[in-house]
Structures are given as structure tokens and as C-alpha cells.
Amino acid sequence: MLQPYRDVLTRPGALAFSGAGVLARLPMSMVGIGIVLMVSTIYGSYGLAGRVSAVYVIAQAICSPQLARLVDRHGQSRVMRPAVALAAVGLVGVVVAASQEAHEAWLYAAAVVTGAGIGSFGSLVRARWARVLGADPHRMHTAYSLESALDELVFIVGPVLATVLATSVAPSAGLVVPLVAMLVGGYWFLSLRSTEPPPAPVGSPRPKGSVLRRPGMVVLAIVFVAMGSIFGATDVATVAFAEESGSKGAAGVILAIFALGSLISGLLYGTRVWKRPLYLRFATGMVALAIGVCFFFLVQSLVALAAVMFVTGFAIAPTLINGNGLVQDLVPRERLTEGLTWVGTSLGVGVSIGSSVAGAQIDVNGSHAGFLVVVVSAGAAVVATLAALRTLRGDAGEHVHDSVEAGSPSATGGAAVAACEVAESVEPSRSVGTLDA
Fold first, then answer.
1. How many CB atoms sit inside 10 A of residue 310's CB?
2. How much is the pLDDT for 105?
3. Does Plastid count among this protein's keywords (predicted)?
4. pTM for this prediction
């Protein structure tokens, strides 16, 4: 099973940029929960914690597509070196403001600066795979499946590490590690110039308008907002549920188990060729994810919650992967970075909405009110998906089917992937269940 992965990692420079990318992506699984743990502990309010986390995610969601367009035109290192420095300054500001119990306005301001510069290293890594492997659909499939599995590894290690540090060392300690990882991993990655995709040629026309003008992209954006709300509300509700159960430190372990199920299925997905039309697999995954999260509301113990999350995790990546795969058929090749980043942005907006709403509900009615927000978000995602299924099929169905027959790669939110022929090569950041071949 591992031979396809060995094959792509032996390409010149591949192991280095993939490894650096893992370290640079660690903040994506630690900053959100780190903010929630720190602010809820110091200020005693899950509502405030959720709002600060939401502000961070919204800033990232707004700025990431703009950074992606700049990267396409000017190159990764030229754009992201100052951006990483800006994000680091913002994250230091969040830690300092909270440690001093400053007015919440300072927390919001620092969160905005952090989100504005942090960007999406997942997209940069996948852009390099596209450069190294070209348009080989089978190897692209393997490479993006690998990156999806590594994303899951990040989501396994990150929440646990953030929780242990915040509860055992100091409330702000959970944000120190992602700060170091962002600086070390980010600048290491950006120093690897041999695999960096070239910027757009000088004098090439600038793209006009937004890719969201396409109906299919609007549909995906709406669905991904609802999906993000599932994840954001789940994070906050899990922390609150663990605290109510007398073991706040277990929250990180449970969220890691959630990602572990996704990691396992992601590795399996990378070895398969999928033949069913992509839009149908996307809808199937969304329904499966919605059914799974409904059980979160019913659990009464940490062990039960961990078990349900593990099983539900198998549905996350297929849904994200297939949704991002649809983007490759909905936008022009030269605007893939922007298209995929918008999907990741929509997911981030949803995370901010979910964490904020769930935090407010938890403050009033306890952790199960947060899980109720998860269930409502899942229902909205299913309704939006099924109501617009004809749009997705009409925009991308026929071409996607051909791509899948050829050998479907995978993708993650916000990748600068080339080659429209590799229509199903995009694979998102969680994992993949064996939905149906």
C-alpha cells in the first residue's frame, strides 16, 4: 500500500517541502482551540473565546484569497515571507493581550492581524506537488492523498498539544508552539526555491471579477460555510463537554480521535480509483457526515463521544475532497488557486460562525446546546447540497465522470493545482471514508 507514496516522495525536493509544509501547517489545528482555551480560562467566558476565535478565522477567510492571487502573480516566497512575519506579530499580540487581561478590543485587533497574514500553507504545498509531478493523474492522486493524511496528523497532534500545554503549563502556552512552528516551518518551506512554482509571466493579463460568479461555486461556498460551522461548533462544544465531565484536558484527545478516523480513511482513499460521479459522492459524504454528527448531541460520556467522533471522522475527508475536486471543473485552470482558496475561505467563515454561536449557547445552556448548533449546521449543509445537486451536476458532472475514470487524485482546501484534466485530484484537509466505488 505504501509504494505509491514512496514513489512521489523520492522526487527531487519533495520530501523536504512536504515535511516543512507539515510544520508550517501546525498552526491551523492549534490557533483556534488555543485561543478558546486561553480566553475561556483567563476571562471565564466561552462566548468571548468563540468571538475572538471567530474574528481570527474571518480575517483569515477574507485575506487568504487575496494572498492566493498575489502568490499566483508574484510567487510564494515574495508574498508569504512578509505575511508570515505579520501573522507572528499578531499572534504574539493575542498572547500578550490575554496575559494582561486587556480589554477584549485588543484581543480582536490582534486576532485580525494574525488571520490577515497566516495564509494557507496547505495550498502552497499542493501547488508544489503540481509543479513536481505535472499532470500525472495517478501520482497527483497519491500526492494529494498523502497531504490529506498529513493534514489529519496535524489535527491529531495539534489539539492534544494545545490542550495539554494550556491546561498543564499556562493558558497561553497552547499558542506558543504554533507561533514557533509557523516561523520555523514557514521560513524553511519558503527557502526551498527549487520546487517553488513560477509566478505569472510579466505582462500577463490580470484576472477580472470573482470566480464566485459561477453558480456551482456559489453552491459550494454555501455548503462549505455550513460544514465549517459544524467543525467550529464541535471544537467549542467538545471543550465545554470535557470540562463539564471534569476533564477539560481530554478535549484535545477527543478532537484528535476525530481526526484519526479521518486520517485512516484518507490513507485508504489514496489507494483507490473512484468511478461514481463526483457530485454524487460529494452529496453522499455530506449526508453521511450529517448523520454522524447528530449522535454528538445524544452522548453522555467522554468515551461515547470519542467513539462517535472516530466513526464520524471517516466521512469528513470524502466530503471535503470531493467538494474541492468539483472546483477544478468549475473554474479556469489559471484561477484554481483562487477557486480552491475560496472554498477554504468559506469553510473558515463557517468555523467562525459555528464557534461563535456555539460559544454563546454554551454560556447559557451548557455543552449540549453547542452540539445542537452542530446538528442544525449539518442539516443546513444537507439541504443546501441536495437542493442544488442539479446545478453541480450540470456544471461539472460530465467532465468529472471522465476524470474519475482516468484516476482521481485528491485535494485540500485552497491548493494551487494545475491541470484541469486531473479533475478529481483535489483532496481536502481531513480524511476519506470508503464511500462507494
1. 18
2. 94
3. no
4. 0.72
